[in-house]
UniProtKB/TrEMBL annotation:
Gene Ontology MF: a single term: ATP hydrolysis activity
Domain ABC transporter: 7-238
Pfam families recorded: ABC_tran
Name of the protein this chain belongs to: ABC-2 type transport system ATP-binding protein
Composition skew (Basic and acidic residues), residue ranges: 248-262
SUPFAM superfamilies (UniProt xref): P-loop containing nucleoside triphosphate hydrolases
Coiled coil: none
Organism of derivation: Flavisolibacter ginsengisoli DSM 18119
SMART domains, per the entry: AAA (SM00382)
Signal peptide: none
Keyword Transcription: no
Residues covered by region (Disordered): 248-268
InterPro entries referenced in this protein's UniProt entry, alphabetically: AAA+_ATPase (IPR003593), ABC_transporter-like_ATP-bd (IPR003439), ABC_transporter-like_CS (IPR017871), P-loop_NTPase (IPR027417)
């Protein structure tokens, strides 16, 4: 059965002076699917997300989300999407409930509806018990789930998650994965995520795209990609190396530490 496409990019390109960070990317994402962008540090994943969330303007090309062009109608796009950046995006001094209520108000939800939705998402993310505690007392996994709930307050059709599990302990990773899959199941939310974790891409994604130096190196289902590298029992790591000619773990140490530090510093 043919699925409806929710997002298409057409030769989406971003140059920073002479350097091309994203080079004529053309991909399509079906409604209700989880799509992962993989690639080594500097491959252009965050740049791609920033273009699709209208934080950056393309140098050329376009992307269409639910029929709306990011180039022509950035304000309409912002109502259609939710975004969880790599950096912490909740306030550590407020409670989980207060953080969500703030966002509900930002999106102009009437007071009664705002409270209902906050409670609905706290329940969905299994954060009711901690709802009235300051967020700085939350674990990394709880913070991530709260951030995802926050990005959902206006019921966006599409969510962008930039490295949703970086810096989390194994239990945090599992609960975040479980809730990302539930979002797709219960709300039919279309999700584009970036990740360095091959297992994450393999377990969550309907389709995976590999970027290498700003260019699309491969796209397909995890199964198709594993078959395409033609070794018996090939893993997503093998696929990564095959298409990007780099190791998935290159330079991870510093990157992970830096991200964790950013988290700690921001929450005080
Ligand atoms: N504002 C900017 N000015 C100049 N160069 C930039 C800018 N933003 C990104 N770049 C460069 O563009 C390239 C792609 O960066 P990007 O952050 O998109 O990579 P990434 O795949 O998300 O990497 P990571 O896995 O480290 O997050 C990098 O070489 C980066 O240095």
């Amino acid at each position: 059965m043919a699925m409806a496409l929710l997002l298409t990019t057409q030769y989406l390109t971003k140059r920073f002076h002479a350097f091309t960070a994203l080079d004529a990317l053309t991909i399509s994402i079906e409604e209700g699917e989880i799509f992962s962008l993989l690639g080594p540090n500097g491959a252009g994943k965050s740049t791609c997300i920033k273009l699709l969330t209208t934080l950056l303007k393309p140098s050329s090309g376009d992307a269409i989300i639910d029929g709306v062009s990011v180039v022509d109608h950035p304000f309409r796009i912002r109502r259609l999407i939710g975004y969880v950046p790599q950096m912490i995006s909740v306030d550590g001094t407020l409670t989980g409930y207060e953080n969500l209520l703030l966002f509900a108000k930002l999106y102009d939800l009437p007071s009664q509806e705002a409270k209902q939705r906050v409670n609905e998402y706290l329940g969905f993310m299994e954060l009711q018990e901690a709802a009235h505690k300051p967020v700085r007392t939350y674990s990394g996994g709880m913070i991530r789930r709260l951030e995802i709930a926050q990005s959902m307050m206006h019921r966006p059709k599409m969510l962008f998650l930039d490295e949703p599990t970086t810096g989390l302990d194994p239990i945090g990773v599992q609960t975040v994965w479980q809730h990302i899959l539930e979002l797709k199941k219960q709300f039919n939310t279309t999700i584009l995520l970036t990740t360095h974790i091959m297992d994450e891409a393999d377990k969550l994604s309907d389709h995976v795209a590999f970027l290498s130096r700003g260019k699309l190196a491969a796209v397909g289902t995890p199964e198709e990609l594993k078959k395409s590298v033609q070794s018996i029992d090939s893993s997503m790591e093998d696929v990564f190396i095959h298409y990007t000619k780099e190791s998935p773990d290159s330079e991870r140490g510093f990157h992970e530490v830096a991200t964790e530090r950013k988290t700690t510093r921001r929450l005080g």
